[in-house]
Design a protein that fits this description.
globular; 32% helix; 145 residues
């Protein structure tokens, strides 16, 4: 969902407070904190948004905020994050959770993440997705199998 004019370059949708008077970022952090200790939660952001991240997540340590030197697509920030985390813990199981997604059934989501973690511990890669209800070139598609 595009959220213009509320979502702008100066205030992307992950910082908008649309549900329960919390931003998507705050809701994502709270959701993940139910299954991962907060000291193991990292947020990757562009340098322009670092202060906003700190404002939205005041209990997140500065060393858990990974700063992108320049704005790139998801693959670049994931690669940067993985290289930093791997240096800290070569055996880490890492989950990537975009902070601009709406999760309607949080309990089901958490159960699926826990199940995915069990599979990932067996040295497998896990990719979650939802069944599309329409064709949309803004999204990627996963081929099962």
């Amino acid at each position: 969902m595009r959220l213009w004019p509320k979502s702008r370059q100066s205030l992307p949708k992950q910082f908008l407070k649309l549900f329960r008077n919390k931003s998507f970022l705050q809701l994502t952090f709270e959701r993940i904190e139910k299954i991962v200790p907060k000291e193991h939660i990292y947020v990757v952001t562009h340098i322009h948004y670092a202060d906003i991240v700190k404002m939205h997540l005041p209990n997140l340590k500065d060393e858990n905020i990974i700063i992108e030197p320049e704005r790139k697509e998801t693959a670049a920030c994931v690669s940067l994050s993985l290289s930093i985390i791997k240096k800290k813990d070569p055996e880490a199981i890492v989950g990537i959770f975009p902070s601009d997604h709406f999760i309607g059934n949080e309990e089901f989501f958490i159960k699926q993440i826990q199940y995915g973690y069990e599979i990932a511990c067996k040295k497998s890669m896990v990719c979650f997705g939802i069944k599309p209800n329409r064709i949309d070139t803004n999204y990627g598609y996963i081929k099962k199998g």
